[in-house]
Amino acid sequence: MKIGFVGLGNMGMPMAINLAKAGHEVRAFDPAATPQPPLATSGSAAEAAAGADVVITMLPNGAILREVAAEIIPAMKQGAVLCDCSTVDVDSARAVADDASSAGLGALDAPVSGGIAGASGGTLTFMVGGGADAFETVRPLFDIMGQKAVHCGDSGAGQAAKICNNMILGATMIVTCEAFALADKLGLDRQKMFDVVSTSSGYSWSMNAYCPAPGIGPQSPADNDYKPGFAADLMLKDLRLAQQAAESADADTPLGALATQLYDRFVTEEDGSGRDFSAMLPRFEQRGRGV
Ligand code: NAD
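Above: the input record for the complex with nicotinamide-adenine-dinucleotide. Below: its predicted structure, written as tokens.
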């Protein structure tokens, strides 16, 4: 396939390279990054998009996605598919999909889970919203960049799945960290706590696969001084998107709201910026009830 790829950051560059290594012709653009071989370089997003069968975007947020989409949609050939893999607000995903289909294009919102390691290793999970035909067109590319792609429903359904998943993840990580800090104060050995919880009803991905306590459970960012991994800043971004969506859908999400407040404070006031999101554990360790 001829592929246009726009947005070559931590995630986009390795995803685009995996597509090119699999034999696809990938023309790539990023205003701040030089495409690495075997990617072909384009002078603009529109140039990368022109003539492509599929255009993939991997951008920081919904406002930038809307700008880029306004530039590339008129340049794309009829029947091509615009596939956005960024994490953005549901409203932006739906607005871009509407504009694309008005222009005779297919459109997918296909945010990912799996982080930078998943992007490099081709093991991402894609959660996808949009039409079935567009999904079938892009499916072979999802298979190269990832290990699983779930077609979640119409436009916006991929972003909805992503923010619901990450709202669960954020709240679960917080409660896992506060439970470790409580266990410390109760004199319970951390390894014993892990041995019990990871095989009892309190188990979760945060505890079992990404344990926030150093030296306990499988290797995780806690064992590397809480270097990300999945940065607290990105968790905050996703929690804010969940709250924005809950607001516009009139959904009651009290734990999601509290998780957002805690990560907001952690990132903006408590040196959490640039640390892994599991660094909530040292944060709780330092605190008592009154602080
Ligand atoms: P990043 O900041 O490393 O990369 C974003 C890239 O977009 C940058 O290279 C930037 O120059 C480029 N860009 C900005 N404006 C542009 C424009 N107008 N035209 C073209 N390119 C432009 O971010 P990332 O870590 O690669 O994440 C990308 C997306 O994936 C985000 O939406 C993020 O939330 C999501 N995501 C990231 C992770 C992760 O672990 N990093 C995990 C899952 C999802």
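Notes for the reader.
The chain has two domains: 2-154, 160-286.
The CA atoms of residues 214 and 222 lie 5 Å apart.
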